[in-house]
Every structure is written in C-alpha cells, then in structure tokens.
Amino acid sequence: MDFKALPKIELHAHLSGSIRRETLHEVWVRKKESGETSLEDPLIEMPVGKFDYNLETFFPLFSKYIYALCNDISALTYTTNAVLADFQSDGVVYLELRTTPREIPSAKITKDIYIQTIISCISTFNTLHNMKVNLILSIDRRNDAATAISVIDLALKYRSQGVVGIDLCGDPAVGDISIFQPAFSKAKSEGLKITIHFAEAVQSSTDKELWRLLEYCPDRIGHVIHVPDKVKEEIVRRKLGLELCLSCNVHAKMITGTYGDHHFGWWKETECPIALSTDDVGVFGSTLSNEYALIAEHFGLGRKEICELARSAIDITFADEEEKRRLREIMWV
Ligand code: IMP
Ligand code: ZN
User: Fold this and answer.
1) Ligand nearest to the CA of 11
2) N or C: which end of the chain has fewer CB within 10 A?
3) Where is the Adenosine deaminase domain (predicted)?
C-alpha cells in the first residue's frame, strides 16, 4: 500500500518539533555566513539518524537550541513554510499545527507578532495548496495562570484567522496543572476546542491530575499512555478523540517495549476515534505516512482498516463543517 498517497489528517504536530534538522541546518548556514550565530551546526547537534531523545533530553533541545536558532522573523517564516510543505508532500490533506506563543525580545518579537507570523505563513499556504491548515495555541505546563489566560486571549483574538483550539503541553515532569482551571474554563465558555497532553509520563498520570484534566472537558487527548482503569472507562464513555503517537513513544521510551506493544492496540478496540499523529517529526524522524505503515505492519491492518483509521480522524478535527465535508469527499475516494 502506498501510505504517502493515502489522504491523511494530522492533528498533533508541534511546530518547532516538526522542523527537519536539514531545514534547521539551512537556517544555521545563513546565520553563520552573516555572523549571527555561534550555535553548533544542527546536523552535529542532532545527527541524521539520531532519534533516541527521551523526556530528559527532549525538552532542553527546544529551550537551549531550536529556539535559539529560530529566533527572528526570517527563521520563523522559513521553518514554518518548510514544515507546511513537508506535511503536504507526505500526503497530509488537513493539518492542525500547534505552537506555544513565544516572545523573542532580541528580535523585538512579541507573542502577538509571533502568532501573526505563523498565521501569515498558514494563510498564504491555504490559498495556494490543497492541504488545509488550522492553528492550535499551546499552554506550556511551566506557564503561570496569567500566561495561560493570555494564550486563550490570543486564540480568541486570532480565531477568525484560523486559530481553532487550545493545547496543554510541555515537560510532564513539571508544573501544577490545577492552576489552569480558569484558562480552560474561559476557553470552553468561549467555544474554543481543547486538546490536552494526557497521561504522557508516570509523573503526570496521578488520579488527581487525570480527573482534574478531564474536568477541563477536553475534546481530544494526546498520548494517553499511563491511564488507570477507571479513567479509561470515563474516556471510553465520553468517546474522546485520541491523538496517538507511535514512533515518538517508542523512541522516547515512553512505553515499555516496541511498536507492537503500543497502547494503540488497546484503544483501537474501543469506540474512541483515533488520529494517528507524529508529534515531532523533526525530532523523531517518522512521517505520518510512515506511522501508518508501522501501524499496518505491527497491528496487521489491511487497506480497508487503514483507510478507516485515516477517516476516523475527520469527526474529531476542530475544523468547520464545510472542511469536514471536503475531507469526507477526499477520503472516501
Ligand atoms: P512549539 O510549541 O512550536 O515551540 O513546539 C515545541 C514545544 O512543544 C516544546 O517546547 C514542548 O513544550 C512541546 N512539545 C513537543 N512535543 C511534546 C510532547 O511530546 N509532550 C509535551 N510537550 C511537547
Ligand atoms: Zn505532543
């Protein structure tokens, strides 16, 4: 089966984690030539073929390296356009990209300007290509309550320009997610969609945390790894949309075992719709078409089941009805 040709939906992709290291290298070369960077070459920092980032090495890669390289309008624009082109050439027909609003004082970039820059790339892309893109803004677990509210305000401000929802992400080992109650309550009451990184690591999978996160009424949850039985029952009862990430979980050793041991095998027997997702294709190196190929191989799914799996993401997109209709047409061929 040609998994690239299969029309696919990507619902869980972090912008900065989706930049290929070759793209980062191109940015670095330009900065190096103009004497703008003393950072190491991305191809040395992240050698081709190295995907074994774990939860300890993964988050500093952003805060200490990728953010230091993608630190002006030109780098943000270049890398965002490259990420969009990469998903399109992999056969993605609808993408929900997510990013954490980031200010870059050295380039006089406010969070507002950061979002405007990304939105501008997406709008231009949407007018020129078949793949349609919407944006989700992320709250980082390290944020304080006021910062989280400011993410909601930004999402509301740019809603008419394609911001469709809010995400909660970041290092699962840090933060107290109970402080985000007012932010999620505001998002919900304003009708923004909500997706949450859920039970991603043992530390972030206490009963207290998971039940609290469910109180925020997420429309989708991501990863869904270390879930106690009672919480599983509730997720199934709500038929929540699940964003499951195979290679990321295997490479980062977030699950025990390998591809065939992934909890996809358990959730696929439930009535929860699944959106197979890449998470950070730039870091873990597995495109969405490759994720489908891995699922087919390790869970013995044939063409019909793979097409059904791809289509099961339509109803849990945060897209409007018109876009969902377009996707049903494309994906039923
Ligand atoms: P950005 O939001 O576009 O800057 O993308 C990078 C950010 O996404 C990282 O700094 C993390 O906070 C977040 N992120 C990426 N992958 C994961 C994940 O698997 N779990 C939690 N957070 C993640
Ligand atoms: Zn993620």
Assistant:
1) 2
2) C
3) 7-329
User: In this structure, are residues 245 and 199 in contact, taking their beta carbons and an 8 Å threshold?
Assistant: no
* Burial category of 212 from C-beta neighbours within 10 Å (exposed 0-12, middle 13-18, buried 19 and up): middle
Instruction: List, as ranges, residues with CB under 5 A of the ion ligand 2.
Output: 279
The domain defined by 8-330 folds into: TIM Barrel (3.20.20)
Q: Is the pLDDT of residue 333 over 70?
A: no
CA distances from 84 to 5, 87, 124, 282, 302 (A): 17, 5, 11, 12, 29
Contact 36, 297 (CB under 8 A): no
CA angle 49, 53, 56 (to 5 degrees): 160
- Annotated catalytic residues are 200
Report which protein residue has its CA nearest ligand 1's atom 14. 170
- 53, with CB counted inside 10 A (0-12, 13-18, 19+), is buried
3-state secondary structure of 319: coil
Q: Where are the domains of the chain?
A: 8-330
β-strand 163-169 against 193-198: which pairing, if any?
Answer: parallel
pTM above 0.90, yes or no: yes
φ, ψ of residue 243 in degrees (nearest 5) = -100, 105
Answer whether 279 contacts ligand 1 (Cβ < 6 A): yes
Contacts of 63 (CB under 8 A, 6+ apart): none
Measured between alpha carbons, how far is 62 from 67 in angstroms, rounded to an integer? 6
Q: How far apart are CA 251 and CA 283, in angstroms?
A: 10
Hey, whose CA ends up nearest to atom 8 of ligand 1? 14
Q: Is 16 in the pocket of ligand 1 (CB under 6 A)?
A: yes
Per residue in 78-105, pLDDT (tens digit) is 999 999 999 999 999 999 999 999 999 9
**Phi, psi dihedrals of residue 135, rounded to the nearest 5°:** -120, 140
Across residues 231-252, what is the average pLDDT? 98
